[in-house]
Amino acid sequence: MKPRQQKNSNAMPESQNSWYVRRRAVDEYKQTLVDEEPLPMLKTLKILRAIIVNIGIMALSGYFVYEGGDPTIIGVMSLGVLAAYNGLEISDYLALLQAVQEIKSAQDNDE
């Protein structure tokens, strides 16, 4: 099997990439941070989105139990969905932090 070739010349060497962060997501965030959005706005939007989705999942679960659903099944399913969603959110947030770190290190190297 052939080793992966890096497509982006400003990407970090493969040995410095975090195993838990998707390279594509980091590259997209780097492009967004350089071209468009400031970091505090991206962080705020991500946190707000996560809060809204979590409240929505909990509200739907509570409604289903209120309407007569089995609390055991609904509780297990809602915890599973919350864990999966929050896992994706954490992964996405870590990709954002990695992009910020790479941009800062590239700026430090340019100086």
What does this entry look like structurally?
This protein is an all-alpha fold. The chain has one domain (21-106). The chain is 73% helix and 0% strand. The chain contains three helices and no strands. It starts with 22 loop residues before the first helix and ends with a helix.
Summarize the structure.
The protein is mostly helical and 111 residues long. Helix content is 73%, strand content 0%. The protein has one domain (21-106).
List the helices and strands and how they pair.
Elements: H1 23-35, H2 39-66, H3 71-110
Helix pairs in contact: 1-3, 2-3
Beta fraction of the residues? under 5%
What characterizes the major β-sheet?
A: none
Structural shape: elongated
List the domain count as a whole number: 1
Low-pLDDT stretches = 1-15
* Overall pLDDT score: 79
Give, in order, the helices and strands. HHH
Distance between the termini: 39 Å
Number of helices: 3
Question: What key phrases describe this protein's structure?
Answer:
111 residues, mainly alpha, 73% helix, elongated
